[in-house]
Each structure stands twice: as C-alpha cells, then as structure tokens.
Amino acid sequence: DGGITQSPKYLFRKEGQNVTLSCEQNLNHDAMYWYRQDPGQGLRLIYYSQIVNDFQKGDIAEGYSVSREKKESFPLTVTSAQKNPTAFYLCASQRTNSGYGYTFGSGTRLTVV
Amino acid sequence: QKEVEQNSGPLSVPEGAIASLNCTYSDRVSQSFFWYRQYSGKSPELIMSIYSNGDKEDGRFTAQLNKASQYVSLLIRDSQPSDSATYLCAVIVNSGGYNKLIFGAGTRLAVHP
Questions:
Q1: Which residue of A65, B4, B53, B105 is most buried, as measured by CB atoms within 10 A?
Q2: Which residue of A4, A9, A38, A43 to mutate against B (max B Cβ within 10 Å)?
Q3: What is the pLDDT of residues A61-82, one digit of tens each?
C-alpha cells in the first residue's frame, strides 16, 4: 500500500545535539512538506519541496535544515540552533504543485532531555 | 491577522446533534479549502475538500464555502462520540509560485452521550 512513513515515532534529543527525522513516501508525489505542531496549536510549516534538489523555507525554518536528493525522501534535521525543539513533527506529501489535499505521515514526537 | 482563523473551542454538543465548525481566511485568491480531523496524538486525516462556492456533502459531513465572505464551515450531522477530535481548517496559499497548505489552530469538538 502507498503511504508516507516517518521514523522514529519517538525521539529524544540532548541539549546541543543535532537529530534527523526521516520521511519516506511511495506515492510518487512531487511535493513534500514538514510541519511542526505544539500542544493545543495548529500546524506550522517548516520547509517544503516541490521537486528534487529544490526546497523553500516555510514560516519557522530557523534551526532546521532539509535535503531532497530523491523524490521519495525528505529528511529534516533539527539542529542545536533550534532552541525549543520539543514538538510533534509531521511530514506530508502532495501529488503535484496543485490544489489537492496533503497526505500525512504518522508523525515523530521529539523531546529534549 | 492570521491567515486562517478558527475558534479554538471546545465546542460541546450532545450525541445526535449537529456540530457546526467555522473558519475564516485572509487570502482572497485562495481556491482550495480542506477540513482535517485530528485525534489526540495522531496525525491529521483529510475528511473534506471544497473548491467552489456552495455546499459539498459527504455522508454526515457538509462543507460550505463562501469566497466573498472568505468563510468556510463544516457541519457534522448526527454527531457521535467518535467524532470527538480537533478539526483543522486548511487553505492552500500561493507564495512565489509555490503552493503551501496553511492551517488554522483547530477547533476541539466534544460530543457527549
């Protein structure tokens, strides 16, 4: 079955450490997105990519980095520059740069310890 | 002004009643509108999309769009306790030639027996 896989489901980060969240899709979607969700709040866009080797900053890109070397993969690195990284991270994809709704992965919950 | 605004709730309705969820958006040229349902700790699930003015019905759900008033709503008929969740309104906004999905903060719905 086609879908989006995020891993790990739970991740713990020490202060000053970089961590990478994985997002893989087999839907043959061109566009992929990373969102962050804090408790009781909506989703805020971190980065997005419409095609391989190209990506754009969203509304809260500071302290994050991404790469898009393959169509299927869009990993997110949370760097030590992100001062408040504890949140629920969601990856999504979309068929084209179109008006269709997004499909979401199951999310990664990141906690700073 | 936020791009997408929702009343955070909680909206409490008795089982069997109609739940009415509202959303306003700021980008006048937006053409694509979505309602997602999110259970606690889970990723959002697309339940309705609407692109034209008027009503769109799917089972117990009806989405309503009024582009002149920049208003989208979701009606849930015969509400069930299993409908208790947070409902996120989302709008596709075009920025620099790229589409991105912007979310409201969500309305928490509680359906009580």
A1: B4
A2: A43
A3: 999 999 999 999 999 999 988 8
